[in-house]
Amino acid sequence: MTEKPQRTKKPTWVIDKERARRAAAAETVWLFGLHAVRDALANPAREKLRLVLTQNAMDRLGALPDGITPEITDARTFDRAVPLPPESVHQGAALEVKALKWGKLEDVALSGRGAPLIVALDRVTDPHNVGAILRSAEVFGARAVIAPSRHSAPETGALAKTASGALERQPYLRVGNLADTLIELKDMGYTVIGLDGTGDAELPTALAALPGRALCIVLGAEGPGLRERTRETCDQIVRIPFAADFGSLNVSNAAAIALYAASQAQAPGSQAG
């Protein structure tokens, strides 16, 4: 009698990783608000599952893409028809979607749209801050915003609404390990600059010495700031110069300032200081 070959049992960590991957693939996101829903409907890369509207929202949205059939519900029962967080300002419009897939970091970083400018977020968990940063990243032509898969704001309706449409157009990549990803970017030719109030150099001075360079600006959560390994991985830690000793900026405001300064430093004709 021939013995059947025994199957090799998968390690627990492999099983857990496969389960997490399947769970992530099955996850859906509810976007809400007329602006966020309109932009998602117009995005051919967005997988759309269910559209719920009040008649007023339907009239305001206008013509819908082919193949999209909305569910019309009464404004008084909308909150029961859609599983949104309490007090969501939905304006009578909600769209269930799959999270966007932006592809590999290498492809985005090396050949994405816009200048070679990336924002990295170190454990920034507030979706409103991340949404605002996505808006600034789009305005100033960054190629991507990256954040760790854990301990950062996931793609949610609140994030999409704050991003005001930028989530559909601005790559938001979640990575396994931020420090390792920064090292990958350095290998691709990026200079990695950490933003922190304790930095020795001021941001404008540091950028003036890097005209035309591919840049990654790293920002940490308000309060904790950059983690130690993140700081160690940066090529330089810099600060935004303040006119008075009043504290610190909100992370989304700091990101907007840094993106503007970096975009100017990368502009054709910029000169080293």
Brief write-up:
Keywords: Methyltransferase, Transferase. This protein is α/β, with parallel strands linked by helices and 273 residues long.
What fraction strand?
A: 15-25%
Low-pLDDT stretches are: none
CATH class of the largest domain: Alpha Beta
Biggest sheet strand line-up: 7-6-5-10-8-11-9
| Rg | 22 Å
Domains, number: 2
Mean pLDDT: 88
Distance between the termini: 82 Å
CATH topology of the largest domain: Alpha/beta knot
Helix content: 25-40%
Name the structural class.
alpha/beta
CATH superfamily of the largest domain: SPOUT methyltransferase, trefoil knot domain
- Could you spell the SSE succession in H and E letters? HEHEHEHEHEHEHEHEEHEHEH
Task: Provide the fold topology.
Layout: H1 12-26, E1 28-32, H2 34-41, E2 48-53, H3 55-61, E3 71-72, H4 78-81, E4 93-98, H5 105-111, E5 117-122, H6 127-139, E6 144-148, H7 157-163, E7 172-175, H8 178-187, E8 191-195, E9 201-202, H9 203-208, E10 215-220, H10 228-233, E11 236-239, H11 251-266
Parallel strand pairs: 2-3, 5-6, 5-10, 6-7, 8-10, 8-11, 9-11
Antiparallel strand pairs: 1-4, 2-4
Helix pairs in contact: 6-7, 6-11
Features:
273 residues; alpha/beta; 60s Ribosomal Protein L30, Chain: A; Alpha/beta knot; 2 domains; 7-stranded parallel beta sheet; 4-stranded mixed beta sheet; 11 helices; 11 strands; 36% helix; globular; Ribosomal_eL30-like_sf; RNA methyltransferase activity; RNA binding; 23S rRNA (Guanosine2251-2'-O)-methyltransferase
